[in-house]
Every structure is written in structure tokens, then in C-alpha cells.
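for the recovery benchmark. C-alpha cells below, seq after
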């Protein structure tokens, strides 16, 4: 009986201690009829960005860069320009080569890099196709042309052989 009484006393004291700690953590109640308003302001556009002299490279922008003739014509351009490397065709290598590059504020393409390739010859051909695509329409952030890092897949598919 004495043990039960001691255990009960212990549980009550721990319970009251927990309630005391909970009260200390809770924020004070809001006054009735009041509303807290938080205003977020956009930082001003730096002068260097407006004049196009920023070195910042964006990965996500409001308006993505695009091929000068539009992405509808991009597939036509790639199909007409891509030359399947002989060694890759012989080895029946197929897949996508992902080329990363920077579209400058002027639309000029620079800094080419294969981020995922399938063969040395296909990787080189994918870079050649993108390099020869000419200037693109620059990406825009808040209406200002900016440098954008872009990744474009180039598909290498061998023509399928039908039934003989």
C-alpha cells in the first residue's frame, strides 16, 4: 500500500511538472479582434543586373531561354543536323546525351558540358549540334535578360528495322 501511494504521488508530481512546462512554452494568446499582418517586400533589382553586367547565372527563371525559331522547330533542326557517328551505329549505341550550357543575356551559347553521355563520339556530336544552333532567345527574370544555365537532351535513335 505504501508503494502504491508513493507511486501515485510520483505520477501526480510529474504530471503537474509537465503541465507547468507546457504553459511556459505556449505563446501568449492573441488579443481578440486583432490580426497579425506580415508583409514581404521584393528586394530591388541591382543596377548591374539592369545594365546586363551581372555575373550571376540562373538555373530557374520566369521565362526560360529557347531556340530562336521556337521549340516546335527544334526537333526538325536536330533531325536535319544530327549525324549519327559511324562507330556508335556499328555498336548499336542509342540513348540520350544531356548537354549543359549557358545562354548569355545576348542569346549566345557558351560553356558546353556533357552531364550524361552515352559514348565519346555521340557526346561530341550532341555538343556540335547545339553549338551550331545559333543564338537563342535569352531567358528573362523580372523582364530583364539574364544568363541561364540550361540542360538539353539530344536523342540518338537508330532507325528501326521492320520485318523482312
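predicted aa per position
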Amino acid at each position: 500500500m505504501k508503494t502504491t501511494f508513493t507511486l501515485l504521488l510520483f505520477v501526480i508530481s510529474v504530471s503537474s511538472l509537465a503541465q507547468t512546462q507546457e504553459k511556459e512554452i505556449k505563446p501568449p494568446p492573441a488579443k481578440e479582434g486583432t490580426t497579425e499582418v506580415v508583409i514581404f517586400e521584393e528586394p530591388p533589382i541591382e543596377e548591374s543586373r539592369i545594365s546586363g553586367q551581372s555575373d550571376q547565372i540562373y538555373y530557374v527563371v520566369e521565362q526560360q531561354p529557347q531556340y530562336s525559331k521556337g521549340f516546335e522547330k527544334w526537333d526538325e533542326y536536330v533531325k536535319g543536323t544530327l549525324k549519327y557517328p559511324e562507330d556508335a551505329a556499328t555498336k548499336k549505341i542509342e540513348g540520350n546525351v544531356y548537354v549543359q550550357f549557358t545562354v548569355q543575356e545576348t542569346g549566345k551559347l557558351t560553356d558546353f558540358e556533357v552531364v550524361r553521355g552515352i559514348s565519346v563520339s555521340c557526346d561530341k556530336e550532341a555538343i556540335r549540334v547545339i553549338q551550331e544552333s545559333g543564338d537563342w532567345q535569352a531567358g528573362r527574370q523580372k523582364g530583364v535578360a539574364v544568363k541561364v544555365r540550361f540542360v538539353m537532351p539530344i536523342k540518338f535513335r537508330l532507325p528501326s528495322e521492320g520485318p523482312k
